[in-house]
Specification:
Length: about 220
Amino acid sequence: MSDEKRGVRRVFDEIAADFARTRQRPWPEIEAFVEDVPGGDVALDIGCGNGRNVPLLVGACSRVVGVDFSRELLAIARTDNPDAAFVCGDGTHLPITAGVADVALCVAVLHHLPSTAERAALLDELHRVLAPGGRALLSVWAIEHSAFDGERDEIRANDNDTYVPWTDHDDGTTHDRFYHIFERDELRTLLEASPLGVERLDLLNGNYYARLVAPEG
Ligand SMILES: C[S@@+](CC[C@H](N)C(=O)[O-])C[C@H]1O[C@@H](n2cnc3c(N)ncnc32)[C@H](O)[C@@H]1O
């Protein structure tokens, strides 16, 4: 694992409790996707964090598995979601059998991967674990997000890589997390290089949301 990726994992471990307190409800875009998909047997939440989206999946599929590389966030997710299973793993090497998932989420994860090759590897893994015809929703922070007002030129000058601080709500300490801030064309090119079909690519509230489908057979 690269130092950059290890750094992302360390920060999510450090901020887990504070992060979880601020991430209690799913975003409406995630609710809309889960309402629209047919559901099925197995759902995956890749980079599940504290598991705030897991209850939606439990309502849609018989078995739900959350994967994350932060053990501290996984511990919170397990406590809050006794109806789901959780495994520790890297999104670029998912500890999941091929072709099992009817539905998958990958919300706000891809932008934490520090290279194009690693981001492509996550998409390859998403394709590998989806059943034929399986559906996924993937989101990333977009360059249009208001958090980057006044900083876009600087971010673009650094190949869209940046660090975004998390400020602890209790003690005020700051923890810098690596982000790759996506441009629409770059995301579309990355998605189209994968075997997954792109059903929709929308910019909503500063995030790109891609609805993806695994090829049949
Ligand atoms: C911004 S949080 C989003 C959490 C959750 N998906 C949500 O919507 O609340 C990013 C999550 O991705 C996880 N993550 C980042 N890079 C990862 C990787 N390479 N493999 C597994 N998990 C990763 C982090 O530990 C963290 O839980």
